[in-house]
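Appendix B, record 7
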Amino acid sequence: MARITASVFTSHVPAIGAALDLGKTQEPYWQPVFKGYEFSKQWMKEHRPDVVFLVYNDHATAFSLDFIPTFAIGTAAQFQPADEGWGPRPVPVVQGHPELAAHIAQSVIQDDFDLTIVNRMDVDHGLTVPLSLMCGQPPAEDFHWPCPVIPFAVNVVQYPVPSGRRCFQLGQAIRRAVDSFDQDLNVHIWGTGGMSHQLQGPRAGLINKEFDNAFLDQLIADPATLAQKPHIDYVREAGSEGIELVMWLIARGAMSDCNGQGGQPRVAHRFYHVPASNTAVGHLILEDASAA
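Structure tokens (predicted):
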């Protein structure tokens, strides 16, 4: 039986990818950000999964305003890094896990969630920056990510976007799907995006530390109530792009305590830093109670 043993939550700021790729990680501005992920990279080596199910949002690279799936699962054998206007990031091709992805699609769709099945797409910074932060930059002589990744894209760019409640329930359905897969696999589920930020308008540059840390507190202790938070609260308190945080509820909903299977997860690591580019960086690692 496959099992979800941990969830990882992190911002996916594009400027973080640029700092990594251009060798700026030791500059005074960036040092505090990357210091917050030193534990995470070591943790990842010690808790290496067989597969990562990575929830992120596409930034008009795989999808455009001509075609906007609410939830899209990547079922291909591999995914190329996207060219977002300045060339693809110098990172490895992402290897998929078609068997598990197809099983999750089958199970979740039969569980009454409508997914778009994607057999070919490029993946942008929303997916590759979290991989770089958690895994480091793979050396030239061993240029691959440490495990296969199933990309799961959520529309949080063009309204209407899914509710936090729907995302939380989807995470529970993904848990059921993974539990029913008949291969012995250690699966991590990652929720990415956020935290508070706004990229345009009179409030451009908005960062709300109090909201961000309260969100992290409640994500750990009371995710079911957090899932009821309406969209307008995210927009009002966390900025127009703060709505990305609903994707974290997918990963949290997939943990055993949200599925009647065990106690609360263990907080392995928590990190928060302002600023990184024009946003806050939030990061959390939760180890599932069933993995103890």
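Remarks on this record: The mean pLDDT is 96. The chain has one domain: 3-291.
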